Structure formats: structure tokens, C-alpha cells
Amino acid sequence: MPGHIILLTLFAALLHASWNTLLRGGADRLWSMTIMCLTISLTCAVIALFLPLPASASWQYALLSALLHVGYNLCLVHSYQYGDLGQTYPIARGSSPLMVTYAAEIFAGEKIEFSTLGGITLIYAGILMLAVKGGKLAMPGLQYTLATGFFIAAYSVVDGMGVRVSGNALSYTVWMSALWGVLMSVLYIALRDSKSLLRWRPGLLHAAAGGLVSLLAYGIIIYAMTAAPMGAVSALRETSVLFAAVSGYLFLGETLTLRKMLSCTVIVTGTLMMG
Fold first, then answer.
1. Predicted TM-score (pTM) of this structure
2. What does the pLDDT average to over 178-204?
3. DSSP notation for 161-187
């Protein structure tokens, strides 16, 4: 894995933890999430004017990824209703490399090495340390968190395949993200109404900024997947769980216990081993 790809992926991990911090700290997370997506869509619509269209073979992947992103958004919003950032985020992010690795083997032909078994064991151990305490489930809403991990894995594999046949990684990312924002906005309006979406609120600028940060972070990851294996990039990106634990402590007033930091470290170690 080239050195500049490693640095870019780590930077993307920091950015990803940052926008999740903004989302977790919001009062109306569904609205904040939709504003983020709408900002992404509008930004991508402008960028698309200066880029060639991606190859026709990639459009099916772009649409499918956009739909999967909407599912991810909904599950993430539900997850943050039950758990704090330092607990929910590591489980959602930690579970996805397991699914990405297996799915990449099935759909993209990437082989699973025997050495990844150690990484898988560590990830499961880290997730259990966060979710189970005293032999009992200590995390309500765990099903939403694991579903979030599933959607992360699904769209990561779809995008990894789509960008490889797109002919232009940036064009693919821009058009997929534009579709994603439109679909998320349509869903919000169906659940609530357009006036609720467009009404000025104090957190509007923060949510919009979060959308721009999210777009930059994901664009970096898509680029990285053109130069390195999907499993490796996805694994290294999960160092964001450490950034999230510290960010939750610094900005959201969450506890930063030894158990939580150890769990996050175990998850990161496992993902790096898999990568």
C-alpha cells in the first residue's frame, strides 16, 4: 500500500469521525443528516459540470450505492438515538470490514488470506467488549448499529466495483453522491414535509459543513480504492474509531474509559491485520 495512500486514508478517517461528531451532537439528527446529504448533492451537481460522465457500465453501481447510502443514513440516525459516539461508532465501523472482506471475495474476486482470521477474531472481541458487560447486552439499539455496519460494507463493495469500471473515479463519486443526496431529500420530504427540511435552524451551517467534510472524506476513500485493495483501504479507514472516541470525549462530554479505549484499539488492530 503506497505511503501517500496510507496518509490520505488516515486523513479521511479523521474527517469521517469529525462529521459523525457533528451529527451525534445535533438535536434533530434526521434533519441534520438530510441537510448534509442535500449539501453534498448540490456541491456535486456543480462539480459535475466540469467533469466527463462516468462510463455507462458504472451507473448501475452508482444508483445502487446511493440507495445503500440512504439505508446507512437511516440506521446511523437510529443508532445515535440509543448509544454515544464512542460506543456506537466503533461497533458500526468495526463490523463493516468483516463484511467488506467477504463480499469483496464473492463479488470482486479478492482472496481472503489466512492471516485475516486473527484480525476477524480481534474485531469480534472488541465489539463484544463494547456491547456486552457482565454477561449481558449493555447496548440498546445494537441491531441498528450492526445494520449500519452492513450498509457500510455493502456500499463500500459496490463503490469499489463501480469506480473500477467508471473510467474516472472523481466523476463516479460526484454522480453517486448527487444521487444519494436527492434520494435522501425525497425520503425526508415523504416522512415529514419540504417546509420542515428547508426551514432555517441554528444548526443549519454546522450540518452543511458536515456534508462537505463527509464528501471530501469519501472522495479520498474512493480514490484510494483505485490504487490499493478494497479490504486494505477499508481496514485502514477504521482507525477513525479512535478519533471518534476521543472526539466524543472532547466535544460531546462522553466518558473515555479504559475499557472503551481498549475496545477501540482492539478493533483498529484487527482491521489493520485484515488489511
1. 0.84
2. 88
3. HHHHTTS-HHHHHHHHHHHHHHHHHHH
